[in-house]
Design brief:
Blueprint (H helix, E strand, L loop, with lengths): L1 H21 L5 H12 L7 H38 L3 H14 L4 H16 L12 H23 L4 H14 L3 H14 L4 H13 L3 H14 L3 H20 L2
């Protein structure tokens, strides 16, 4: 009977340890405790003891690193699944968690910015309170987060052209800041030379800043590419509007 109680106590204690371990992320402190218990490494003093302890700790640290890396990857996969389902709040939360493991991953910042942009556009002023409403505060906060995330993505990877383009779109269409949009879009088009979508956005930014001749030059380039009839028609219409406006203002 006494042996049964001892075994039961040991089983409960072991189960408690498993639950506690599963409920929190491993840390180097827990690794150190585990190392001392499992490997018998206490306070090495001699050269031989130190070398042996280092080998044991290196193996344990490698195990921990691989575990942490896999967790970060799983967060990224889960975030992508939510993004595919257009559940942008959930997706952004898991991309943020993945960033805790991979803080220098430009793609993760890009997707955080993308989710934040969608969330900003989903905010509606249901109570009709205007610019001071809670919805506007949330919208502006999401837009600021998107801006910072795209900037971070480009700063990590200066050749991240998709992030450059998206940042230009954010400035030109969401934040109404053509001056900030222009350098990103110009750099984007310096390599993506025939990207007509980028040309349309940059032309808009030029118009916002009163640089009409540059905008017309871009519309002429789009027309000359003849990528598709709709693009040609749109470019001709925008060009005509600029020319008409310039004629009226003379």
């Amino acid at each position: 009977m006494k042996k049964c109680r001892i075994r039961l106590f040991a089983a409960v204690a072991a189960a408690s340890c498993i639950v506690a371990f599963a409920s929190c992320s491993p840390t180097y402190k827990s690794v150190k405790r585990m190392q001392r218990m499992e490997e018998g490494v206490g306070n090495p003093t001699t050269k031989e003891e130190l070398e042996a302890a280092i080998k044991k700790y290196e193996k344990r640290a490698m195990d921990l690193t691989l575990s942490e890396e896999q967790t970060g990857i799983w967060y990224k996969i889960l975030a992508t699944r939510y993004l595919d389902l257009q559940m942008y709040g959930k997706a952004m939360g898991y991309f943020q968690k993945s960033l805790e493991y991979f803080p220098d991953n430009a793609n993760l910042y890009y997707y955080v910015g993308l989710c934040a942009t969608y969330l900003a556009n989903s905010q509606l002023d249901f109570n009709g309170q205007g610019a001071t409403s809670e919805y506007m505060i949330k919208k502006n906060n999401y837009l600021k987060l998107a801006e910072n995330a795209f900037i971070q993505a480009v700063s990590i990877n200066p050749k991240y052209y998709k992030a450059m383009y998206t940042l230009g779109v954010l400035y030109a269409f969401q934040l109404n800041d053509g001056a900030k949009a222009i350098p990103h879009l110009e750099k984007f088009l310096s390599t993506q030379k025939k990207d007509t979508d980028g040309m349309f956005v940059l032309a808009r930014a030029y118009v916002m800043e009163g640089e009409y001749e540059k905008a017309i030059a871009l519309y002429d380039k789009i027309i000359s590419y003849k990528s598709n009839d709709e693009n040609v028609k749109t470019a001709k219409d925008f060009k005509k509007k600029i020319l008409d406006s310039m004629t009226k203002n003379r």
